[in-house]
Every structure is written in C-alpha cells, then in structure tokens.
C-alpha cells in the first residue's frame, strides 16, 4: 500500500512542503508553515518561446561578425555553424542559441544522449547519479524520526516471542503435556520399527479424538495470551517490552500519537491470528514468516504487512526527548510521511 496523495514535508528539505501524488513529488515547494491548497498544485506554465532576432546585414554574406579590429573571415569550418535547433526536451529560453558576436543558431550543440530534461522526470529532481542525489531520493523520516532497521525489529520480535512462550509454559503447559501423552505411543512405536528397519504403518497406535481437541485448545490459549501481551501495550505507547529494549516504537503515519486500541488490534491481527491456522498443516506459520520478512522488500518506509494494514511505521526512539528536530515540533500532526 503506497502513501496516499497529499501535501507532506519534503524529506530533502524539511523547511518546505511538496505534493505527493502517490508515486512521486509534484509541483514547486511551498514554505512549511504555509497553508497548502486543496488538491494538487496547478501545472506550471511552460516558458514562452523567444524568436531570435534576424542577423544584421553584412557586406560579405559568408563572413562572420567579429569584434572590432578583427579582419573578416571567410566563414566557419565545414560542418560547424547554425544547427537545426536545440536537442529535444530543451525548449527555447531567452538568449538560447545566441552568443556575443555570432548570429542566431550559434551556441550549444547537441550533446551526448541523456543530456537535458528526460521524459517522465520531475523538473525538481536531479538526474540519476547527480552528486547531490546518488541514485535515489533520501530516506523518509516520519515525524522527524529515523526508520527502525530490520535488525532491531527482528531482535525486538524475538524478545516478545520469548516472553509469550514463557507465558504459555505457565498457562498452556498442562494442555501441551496431555497432547504429548496422546501422541507418545504412536511415536514410540514408529521409532522402534525404524530401529529394526521396518517402515510399515500397519497397526500403529493412533491417538484418540481428544488429541485434536487438545490441539485446538492449545492454539486458542496461545493466541489469547499473545493478544493480551501485545495489543494493550501497543495501543498505549506503541511499544512492547521487546521494542522498549531495542528503543523502537510504532507510530501512525498520519500523526505522531498513540496507536489506540483499534489500530493496535488491526496491526496485531494480521500477524497473530494466523496462529490458529497452525492446525492446518502449518499454514499459519508460513503466513507469519512472510509477514515477518516483508519489511526487507518494502521501500521506502520498510513496512511489514501488518504495518500496511494499520497504516503505521516503526521508528527509532531518540536518546533524549529533546533530540527531535525543532521544526518537527512546530508542525501540526499528520504533515509528514
């Protein structure tokens, strides 16, 4: 899910705003404290063409006008002289094609391919490879904060999983033990036959129907414990214990404020509810792995699938509260990417 079109603070210059059309910046910047218009900016008028002045009459038609005192020359070398026009895309600008002492059409010649404005490139963007913009735009800083790296997010999630697992050992341990007892005779017989080189499945002791009920209860309890651990903490401050340890937090894209219960529940459900599908040949685990790896392939905001659903981003927490950019504190909520 891409960022919705609207007026946002320019990541390259936080003193200005630009209009984001969903794919790129559009139009000229405006001061950050100015009230943006409704909708996109009006298209910029193209420069009016300038017709070069007619050359002055000369006694010698082929002679080239030169500074006083210079003798007239018979003309430019063969192949050098007036060109049919500027390269495609340059347009006509005041004074283009004229240099002091020469007639119209003299001046810049067609350069190598790729010079000048290219089709589909915004007028404000330097060409790729420009020294001030090496290859791609600068990384967004939502609400003036750096985006959290994938390493920090992974370690925070592992810490949270460890704590949820400890809760399951306490609350869910009896159900897991009973489920294991149901399957123990089956696996013991499988291992005994494997040791003898017997691969047949005839006569294996199968678990009772209670094993399926126990597995459903285990998954329901595990999902409920995860919800109780994560959703209230994320709704209040955007941080679980793992995120606090790694100094990162989740914030809405629209404003630097708490997530709230609705957004926190929407964010958790994308990752947590597939736990119930572990019963279906591990399908839920596959979905959770895809969600966990998705920030590696999302640019530029590094959003996981659960971030995209809840419209949140994960940012680094500054070392000190007063270390946030000064101009970000003066902005109304919801004005940054």
From TrEMBL:
Keywords: Cell membrane, Membrane, Transmembrane, Transmembrane helix. Residues 92-108 have a biased composition (Gly residues). It is found in: Cell membrane. This is Transporter. Residues 53-67 have a biased composition (Low complexity). Residues 37-52, 68-89, 124-137 have a biased composition (Pro residues). Residues 19-140, 317-337 are annotated as: Disordered. The keyword Mitochondrion does not apply. GO terms for cellular component: plasma membrane. The keyword Transmembrane applies. Residues 148-310 form the RDD domain. The chain crosses the membrane at residues 154-177, 211-229, 271-290.
């Amino acid at each position: 899910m891409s960022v919705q079109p609207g007026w946002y603070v320019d990541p390259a210059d936080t003193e200005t705003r630009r209009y984001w059309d969903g794919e790129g910046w559009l139009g000229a910047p405006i001061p950050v404290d100015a009230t943006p218009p409704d909708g996109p900016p009006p298209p910029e008028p193209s420069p009016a063409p300038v017709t070069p002045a007619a050359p002055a009459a000369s006694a010698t038609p082929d002679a080239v006008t030169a500074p006083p005192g210079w003798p007239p020359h018979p003309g430019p070398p063969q192949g050098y002289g007036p060109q049919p026009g500027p390269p495609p895309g340059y347009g006509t600008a005041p004074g283009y094609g004229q240099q002091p002492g020469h007639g119209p059409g003299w001046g810049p010649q067609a350069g190598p391919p790729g010079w000048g404005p290219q089709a589909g490139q915004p007028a404000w963007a330097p060409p790729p490879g420009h020294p001030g913009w090496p290859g791609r735009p600068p990384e967004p800083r939502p609400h003036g904060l750096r985006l959290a790296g994938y390493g920090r997010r992974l370690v925070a999630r592992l810490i949270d999983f460890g704590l949820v697992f400890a809760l399951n050992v306490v609350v869910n341990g009896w159900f897991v033990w009973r489920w294991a007892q149901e399957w123990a005779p089956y696996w013991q017989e499988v291992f005994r036959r494997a040791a003898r080189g017997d691969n047949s499945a005839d006569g294996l002791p199968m678990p009772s129907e209670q094993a399926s009920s126990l597995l459903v209860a285990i998954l329901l309890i595990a999902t409920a414990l995860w919800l109780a651990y994560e959703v209230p903490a994320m709704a209040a401050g955007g941080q679980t214990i793992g995120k606090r340890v790694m100094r990162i937090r989740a914030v809405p894209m629209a404003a630097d404020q708490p997530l709230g219960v609705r957004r926190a529940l929407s964010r958790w459900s994308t990752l947590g509810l597939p736990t119930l599908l572990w019963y279906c040949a591990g399908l839920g685990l596959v979905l959770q792995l895809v969600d966990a790896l998705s920030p590696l392939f999302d640019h530029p905001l590094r959003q996981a699938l659960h971030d995209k659903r809840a419209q949140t981003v994960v940012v680094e927490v500054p070392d000190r509260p007063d270390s946030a950019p000064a101009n970000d504190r003066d902005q109304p909520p919801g004005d940054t990417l």
